[in-house]
Each structure stands twice: as C-alpha cells, then as structure tokens.
Amino acid sequence: QVQLVESGGGLVQAGDSLRLSCAASGRTVSTYTMGWFRQAPGKEREFVARISWTGGSTYYADSVKGRVTISRDNAKNMVYLQMNSLKPEDTANYYCAAEKRRYTISSPTPGEYDTWGQGTQVTVSS
After folding, report:
1. 22: helix, coil or strand?
2. Which residues have CB under 8 Å from 49's CB, separation 6+?
3. Count of beta carbons in the 10 Å neighbourhood of residue 43
4. CA–CA distance, 41 with 63 (Å, rounded to integer)
5. Which of 16, 29, 40, 76 is packed most tightly, with the most Cβ within 10 A?
6. Per-residue pLDDT of the chain (126 residues; tens, 9 = 90+)
7. Are 91 and 122 in contact (CB under 8 A)?
8. Whole-number Å distance between alpha carbons of 72 and 30
9. Surface-to-core class of residue 96, CB atoms within 10 Å of its CB (0-12 exposed, 13-18 middle, 19+ buried)
C-alpha cells in the first residue's frame, strides 16, 4: 500500500511561484502515472497535470498550461508541481494521486486514480 504526502503549499500573492512536492512511501510509484488535482471550496475536484511513469509524457489542464510544470524523480519516489505566475483562481487544496493501474495513461479524471494524499492548501491573494 502506497502513501502519498503533499507539501509546499502556502499563502502567496498573485504572480508568485510555489513548488509542491509529493512524497510516496510504502512502495515505489515509478511504474505509475502520477497526477495533481485541486479542489476549491464548493467545487468539484479538477485535474491539473499528470506525468507518465517514465516522465516522458506530461499533460496539463488548459487553465494552467504554460504556468505549471510537473516532474518526477523516481529514484526518490517523488513528484513535483512547479507553479508560476499564480492567480487568485488557483486557490485550492492540491492533491497528488497515483493511477489505478501500472504502465497506463488513462483519462485525466479523478476516477482513474485510486491513491490520494491528504492535500496541501494553496492560497493566492490578489
């Protein structure tokens, strides 16, 4: 059973940057596509970015494309989300997640992921 722990969130001003980290433990996630999702109060959880198990394929939501970079370090069992030019609408709880199946890139929806962290809060003030 893998556990995911996110960190790096905080309160920042519009235009600032943050780097979120996701630490996996219990077993390796090196064979799983990993994703970042976010959820704002009163809204559904939405996809932000995902990275394939090798790191060779990435995909981003249109709302963050060009401002966000997802990366991973399989040797360290870590996944990262670099967020630049933050906007107030980026305010949300950010979750790291692992896909259900190994060596698979599924649709970027929460239902395709079965392991989640507890989230880290990002608040962007205007």
Report:
1. strand
2. 35, 36, 58, 59, 60, 61, 64, 68, 69, 70, 81
3. 9
4. 18
5. 29
6. 899 999 999 999 999 999 999 999 999 999 999 999 999 999 999 999 999 999 999 999 999 999 999 999 999 999 999 999 999 999 999 999 999 999 999 999 999 999 999 999 999 999
7. yes
8. 9
9. buried
Residue 88 φ/ψ, nearest 5 degrees: -55, -35
- Ranges of beta strands (E only) in 8-125 are 10-13, 18-25, 34-39, 46-51, 58-60, 68-73, 78-83, 92-99, 113-116, 120-125
Residue 14 is encoded by which pair of tokens? 């519009």
pLDDT at position 59: 98
The pair of structure tokens assigned to 31 is: 């064979």
